[in-house]
């Protein structure tokens, strides 16, 4: 699957920017009163352009500060996405509504999840009216999941959610996942209540025993049982502040988590690399029993399947392509964060990758030389090449390879 990199303008909330940069010691209402408008300072020409650019620049850099240490991660993931379809999802505190925004972000999450984890699987469960319903089982095809989300019949709201029923339904499938694959549950919950038939604490204990990690994105307020469950299962729990923060919390789940101690035992995984075929006449595929001319032939049983990656429905062999496997490895060997270059070392004039000119000191209306707050240059510590902020993001989020290091390696050979 190809991914197009698009540079988009993002909404800037000054209050959230201050809140994120400050040291968080408790809840927001326990902190001192802040005059957030004081950070909006005009430059010598009376413009706020430089202040806004600094905020945008800081937001881009904040997304790149991630753990780049080489630790063991599970690149074969199995995750269930549980979506709350209770009546509380019709609230409009998130525009256009909680439900519409959730479905939109869920589609983006699914595409990004499979782009970054191409040999993983994902299924969807919805909960409303005190029951849980499985829309799709674990599958490696993102379009199967997106197709059911676009069906209006599957997204009608009703009553209250059932956290316990949803967890039990996901657990019943995840317990059959092989030991080399991670077991995860991601819940998008807009309700502050849950209608459960039994003791949910027993369900949480069973999730811990089965090494199932649960993460929750709350749309309303912090719920004690969700916080307890995430802490117990070593997942993450966050409550959204606005639409942009909702997307940030959701996309934090995309990188694979570290392997737990119970899964640290190394073992070999049997995989097959099927051949692509194009028949002159249609033949039935083993996965959907539909006539197709294009497909892939299983390396073990010679069955015909439609898409990769997947498990062969006949012999249950994991089928992948070599690009899928190679693309999964960037999580295991991440690129080090680029270092911001100070003005006294900013001698380069153009970005090494895209060749756009770097910012330089400029003359104000008063005739003085003024330098921007940052040099706009970011250096790779291995090849010492300088990159702009957009190329920095593109390298770390899309291609996962440093162009400067690759150019140095090719020239040496």
TrEMBL record:
Superkingdom: Eukaryota
Listed SMART domains: C1_4, VWA
GO cellular component terms listed in the entry, alphabetical order: transcription factor TFIIH core complex; transcription factor TFIIH holo complex
Molecular-function GO terms, alphabetical: zinc ion binding
N-terminal signal peptide: none
Keywords: DNA damage, DNA repair, Metal-binding, Nucleus, Transcription, Transcription regulation, Zinc, Zinc-finger
Start-end of C4-type zinc fingers: 298-315
Location of this chain's protein in the cell: Nucleus
Domain C2H2-type: from-to ranges: 378-400
UniProt domain VWFA: residue ranges: 78-219
Function: Component of the general transcription and DNA repair factor IIH (TFIIH) core complex, which is involved in general and transcription-coupled nucleotide excision repair (NER) of damaged DNA and, when complexed to TFIIK, in RNA transcription by RNA polymerase II.
Family indicated by similarity: Belongs to the GTF2H2 family.
NCBIfam families in alphabetical order: ssl1 (TIGR00622)
UniProt protein name: General transcription and DNA repair factor IIH
Protein's organism: Rhizophagus clarus
Taxonomic lineage: Eukaryota, Fungi, Fungi incertae sedis, Mucoromycota, Glomeromycotina
């Amino acid at each position: 699957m190809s991914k197009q990199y698009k540079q988009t303008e993002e909404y800037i909330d000054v209050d959230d920017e201050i809140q994120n940069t400050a040291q968080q010691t408790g809840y927001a209402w326990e902190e001192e009163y802040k005059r957030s408008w004081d950070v909006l300072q005009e430059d010598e020409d009376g413009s706020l352009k430089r202040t806004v650019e600094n905020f945008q620049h800081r937001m881009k850099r904040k997304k790149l500060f991630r753990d780049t240490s080489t630790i063991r991660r599970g690149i074969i993931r199995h995750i269930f996405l549980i979506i709350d379809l209770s009546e509380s999802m019709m609230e409009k505190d998130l525009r256009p509504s909680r439900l519409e925004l959730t479905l939109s972000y869920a589609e983006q999450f699914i595409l990004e999840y499979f782009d970054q984890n191409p040999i993983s699987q994902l299924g969807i469960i919805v909960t409303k009216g005190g029951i849980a319903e499985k829309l799709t089982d674990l599958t490696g095809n993102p379009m199967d999941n997106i197709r059911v989300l676009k069906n209006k019949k599957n997204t009608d709201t009703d009553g209250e959610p059932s956290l316990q029923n949803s967890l039990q339904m996901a657990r019943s499938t995840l317990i059959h996942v092989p030991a080399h694959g991670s077991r995860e549950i991601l819940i998008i919950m807009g309700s502050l209540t849950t209608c459960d038939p039994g003791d949910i604490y027993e369900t949480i204990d069973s999730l811990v025993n089965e090494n199932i990690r649960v993460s929750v994105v709350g749309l309303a307020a912090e719920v004690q049982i969700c916080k307890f469950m995430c802490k117990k299962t070593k997942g993450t729990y966050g409550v959204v502040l606005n639409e942009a923060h909702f997307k940030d919390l959701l996309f934090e789940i995309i990188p694979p988590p570290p392997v737990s101690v119970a899964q640290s035992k190394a073992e070999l995984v049997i995989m097959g690399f099927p051949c692509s075929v194009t028949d002159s006449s249609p033949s039935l595929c083993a996965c959907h029993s539909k006539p197709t001319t294009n497909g892939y032939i299983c390396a073990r049983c010679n069955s015909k399947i439609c898409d990769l990656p997947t498990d062969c429905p006949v012999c249950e062999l994991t089928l992948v392509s070599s690009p899928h496997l190679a693309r999964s490895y960037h999580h295991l060997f991440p690129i080090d964060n680029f270092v911001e270059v100070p003005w006294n070392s900013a001698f380069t004039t153009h970005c090494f990758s895209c060749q756009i000119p770097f910012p330089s000191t400029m003359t104000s209306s008063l005739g003085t030389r003024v330098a921007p707050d940052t040099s706009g240059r970011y250096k790779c510590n291995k090849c010492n090449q300088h990159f702009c902020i957009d190329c920095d993001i593109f390298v770390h989020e899309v291609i996962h390879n440093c162009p400067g290091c690759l150019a140095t390696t090719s020239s040496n050979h």
